[in-house]
Design brief:
heterodimer; A: 295 residues; mainly alpha; elongated; B: 606 residues; alpha+beta; Dipeptide-binding Protein, domain 1; Dipeptide-binding Protein, domain 3; 3 domains; 4-stranded mixed β-sheet; 31% helix; globular
Chain lengths: 295, 606
């Protein structure tokens, strides 16, 4: 009974709180999340009102204004406020990170669980499948899917989502192989529980930390890929994605129009760094081998 | 540890030394050619050297260095006219305007090439032109230049029909309207008068290629140019670098060509006639790098690696003062600014097959009234001029003043209400009307200009959604008539209003050049009259009539006519902007002394 009240999650949270860097990153992630939510609210309001959003309105007389009290991050080539567009870029980045995770994680978890639990031919098939997907150059695969679906967010969602489940699938498979020999699984089997119940009600919650850590690491990777694709002109085109903003900003960079490039780059840097450091800290916090340490 | 040092650290050190040495500034290859006149410049990606198969501007420029035709544009004369190139004299034209007889110059030889017996280039004959024009008609070549001969030359369409399918094209089959009367006489017989033929014969499609080379190289002919021109291809690294050298056959056969002695007063004042009567070509070697990014091109120009450059929109304000002059730093470096209007017109086209914009003239007129050309002028830093009709300046029928459907927001809103979309609201959905604008690329410049236009249309309450395609997908949509609205431009093939007005001729509808699929019997009738007419007041009157009808029907929104701007370094001579500049490289000159002086003063690489 000494372990009462010290579940994996509460213990992990207690240890995470002790990690100052992780908490700063968590704060940063919360800040980005708020910005994305604000961006989404603005987007939805204008969509519902059937009006063109203010961050899309052009005014050539305000083009290339440096940062000022009126425009904190300056304006772009068409006189639009860089900060407002940066916030919309955060919205798109979050959408991409979340939606691609929602595509990739279920696929990875489903195949990983089946392969780990059943082994044999099912395992052979899943290993063959993910080996085949992994053998294809990731970026080319993403670009091919995006080209087939067409320019825009849907192509990015599918392109990234359908190609990034392999890593998680491998991890889940390994974890499930470990867990299926554990006493609680043996007991569940002895009680005559069905395999879906054992797999998804009993084993899955015990490997959930792997999914969380993978999500925090996949999220910035998906955002980076989206930025890269939009920079190349095969991703988002009519929305203020960070990639689109960087591509536009580079044209006048050599003339000293630094603000758009700088703020967008800093935004990407902050988001990727925060998620990666948080992911690392979560991995440590959720590692059962470190659970007793310092407790 | 010692073993580790020898087996790992030493090879790694060598590798990194080699790696780092590759990172340093590379020596300009100008040093390799210091005793020659070398022209360094930028080029876009180009497809190859087969005159009948390629049509892009970059490829045309390459082809015209190696191949030659009967006629070419005069370099410094305005208005544009053609002059002799491989023709000995202007053609004898029959009274009915249907038969053209050319005499070909004697003593013109192809460059030496393994495709010829003994590797020695043979003399050019009239038969080469017969063969070359037949190649345009051969469907197996899928020539983009066939439009120029389609339905024009007696027997050529039949030759094309008989060459289709899997059968091998019989180039010895006679074509009644295309014959070599003797070794140096070429006769072209037409079905109807075709006053534009002389312009057509100055286009690269009709340039003479030797049959031996086509048959020797087969599909590889596009990569192995064999011509009579001033230069021959030396090396070509696809999508990276291309190098031409002076054609030695000219010196070997004693061929002499001279720099023009006539030109406009402006050309004379600019010193472009200083080399009049001197033997050309001046330049020994041309080196061009494939650079797609305008900023990179600009940087290479500034560092003296390129002799000339265009000025992109983003570099404009750093180079040009509000008074349209070069900034003082540029002037100090001896950079010169050149500008000239182009025979190009940019437009937004409506697909008249589309159920929304095609059947509603008021809607098209409303949209036309919503486009503010002054905003585009401002966006392009004044490098474009607004146009109010379908013809650019100075062609007959050009509209210099706003018309009934030029920018007027109040009128646009009124027309929109009359069109059935008050305040832009689509009664069918209760929301703003959404229209889709198809585009052929998603480059930052295109994207920004389109976002600007989206903003213009937003002011009358219509949502213009941009759909970005790659160029082939875009053309495919146009050809299949699937584009609702599209942004396109037209570069004159030759300086004649007819070349623009054909874009409104019904039978030219997609997949022809009339991508608006505009069909108006009155326009068709006028165009059929106009296309066989010689230049004159009567033809100008017909142009005016057609233009007025087109403006009223609004199949296009007329956007702008760009100005061509270029900058050159002071060592680069005889460079004048021209709408049809393809054969002009032979007139350029490089002053090596001035170049060396510049390098000593401003250069960094040397």
């Amino acid at each position: 009974m000494s372990e009462k009240g010290k579940s994996l999650w509460s213990d992990a949270w207690r240890r995470l709180k002790k990690n100052r860097l992780a908490m700063v990153c968590l704060g940063l992630v919360a800040f980005y999340t708020l910005a994305a939510l604000y961006g989404e609210a603005v987007y939805q309001v204008y969509k519902a009102k059937d009006q063109t959003a203010f961050y899309q309105k052009t005014d050539l007389s305000q083009a290339y204004q440096p940062p000022s009290s009126k425009h904190w991050m300056g304006t772009d080539a068409l006189g639009r406020d860089v900060m407002q567009r940066l916030i919309q870029g955060t919205r798109i980045a979050y959408k991409v990170g979340i939606v691609t995770a929602l595509i990739a994680i279920p696929i990875g978890v489903f195949f990983g669980c089946l392969a780990g639990y059943f082994g044999g031919r099912v395992d052979d098939f899943v290993v063959w499948l993910y080996s085949t997907v992994a053998s294809m150059p990731g970026l080319l695969f993403i670009l091919a899917i995006a080209m087939v679906v067409g320019k825009g967010l849907l192509g990015i969602y599918l392109g990234i989502g359908l190609t990034t489940w392999v890593g998680l699938c491998r991890l889940i498979r390994g974890e499930v192989i470990k867990h299926k020999e554990q006493a609680y699984v043996m007991a569940a089997k002895a009680l005559g529980l069905s395999w879906p119940r054992i797999l998804f009600r009993h084993i899955l919650p015990n490997v959930f930390h792997v999914i969380i850590v993978t999500f925090t690491l996949r999220f910035p990777a998906a955002v980076s890929t989206e930025v890269f694709m939009s920079f190349l002109g095969i991703g988002v085109v009519s929305e203020p994605s960070w990639g689109v903003m960087i591509n536009s900003a580079r044209m006048r960079l050599w003339q000293g129009v630094w603000w758009e490039m700088t703020f967008v780059t800093l935004a990407i840097f902050g988001l990727v760094l925060a998620f990666n450091l948080l992911g690392d800290a979560l991995r440590d916090a959720l590692d059962p081998r470190l659970r007793t340490e310092g407790s | 540890m010692r073993k580790f040092t020898s087996s790992f650290i030493i090879p790694c050190s060598i590798f990194f030394c080699l790696f780092l040495s590759a990172c340093g500034r590379r020596e300009l290859d100008t040093l390799r050619f210091k005793d020659e006149q070398v022209l360094y410049g930028q080029t876009s990606r180009f497809k190859g050297f087969d005159p009948v198969k390629v049509s892009d501007v970059a490829s045309s420029a390459m082809i015209c260095r190696v191949y030659e035709g009967l006629l070419e544009y005069a370099y410094l004369d305005r208005p544009y006219h053609v002059q002799l190139m491989l023709a000995e004299a202007m053609p004898d034209v029959s009274e009915d305007g249907l038969t053209y007889t050319f005499r070909i110059r004697k003593g013109i030889f192809y460059q030496d090439d393994p495709c010829f017996p003994g590797g020695k280039g043979r003399e050019l004959t009239a038969e080469d032109f017969v063969y070359s024009i037949k190649r345009i008609a051969d469907p197996k070549n899928a020539s983009s230049g066939y439009w120029a001969f389609n339905g024009r030359v007696i027997g050529l369409d039949e030759f094309r029909a008989s060459s289709s399918g899997a059968v091998l094209t019989d180039y010895s089959a006679p074509v009644d309207g295309l014959r070599a009367l003797d070794r140096y006489a070429l006769q072209i017989r037409l079905k109807e008068p075709y006053p534009q033929l002389l312009w057509i014969l100055a286009m690269h499609y009709t340039f003479a290629v030797p049959r031996e080379a086509v048959e020797f190289y087969g599909d590889g002919f596009i990569n192995h140019p064999v011509g009579t021109g001033p230069y021959i291809l030396e090396t070509w690294n696809n999508n990276y670098r291309i190098e031409f050298v002076r054609n030695p056959k000219w010196a070997e056969t004693g061929r002499i060509e001279l720099y023009p002695s006539t030109g406009t007063q402006e050309a004379r004042e600019a010193g472009l006639l200083n080399d009049a009567g001197k033997q050309i070509p001046f330049i020994d070697r041309i080196v061009q790098y494939v650079v797609d990014d305008p900023t990179t091109t600009w940087m290479m120009f500034l560092s003296g690696q390129f002799s000339y450059s265009t000025i992109s929109r983003d570099n404009w304000s750093a180079v040009i003062t509000p008074g349209r002059d070069l900034v003082s730093e540029m002037k100090e470096q001896g950079v010169e600014l050149l500008s000239s209007p182009t025979l190009y017109l940019s437009y937004i086209g409506f697909n008249l097959d589309d159920p929304v914009v095609g059947k509603n003239k008021k809607l098209r007129q409303a949209l036309s009234c919503a486009f503010d050309p002054e905003l585009l002028v401002q966006y392009y830093n004044g490098r474009v001029t607004p146009v109010y009709g379908p013809l650019p300046d100075p062609l007959a029928g050009f509209k210099s003043k706003p018309t009934a459907y030029s920018f007027n927001l109040g009128k646009a809103k009124q027309l929109l209400a009359e069109a059935g979309y008050p305040n832009g609201i689509d009664p069918a959905t209760g929301r703003r009307l959404e229209l889709t604008l198809e585009l052929g690329d998603a480059a930052p410049d295109t994207r920004q200009s389109v976002e600007l236009m989206v903003g213009m249309i937003d002011k009358i309450g219509i949502v213009l959604k941009a759909s970005y395609n790659n160029w082939p997908a875009f053309l495919d949509k146009l050809d299949r008539r699937q584009a609702q609205i599209f942004k396109l431009g037209w570069v004159a093939d030759y300086p004649d209003s007819e070349n623009f007005l054909q874009l409104f001729y019904g039978p030219n509808a997609s997949p022809g050049p009339n991508h608006s699929n505009y069909a108006n019997p009155e326009i068709n009738k006028l165009y059929e009259q106009l296309r066989t007419m010689l230049p004159g007041p009567e033809k100008d009157g017909l142009c005016e009539q057609m233009v007025n009808i087109v403006i009223e029907d609004c199949p296009w929104v007329f956007l702008y006519q760009p100005m061509d701007f270029a900058v050159t370094h002071n060592w680069f001579k005889n460079f004048s902007l021209h709408d049809f500049p393809y054969t002009m490289t032979k007139y350029r000159r490089v002053d090596n002394a001035a170049w060396n002086e510049w390098k000593a003063k401003h250069g960094r690489a040397n």
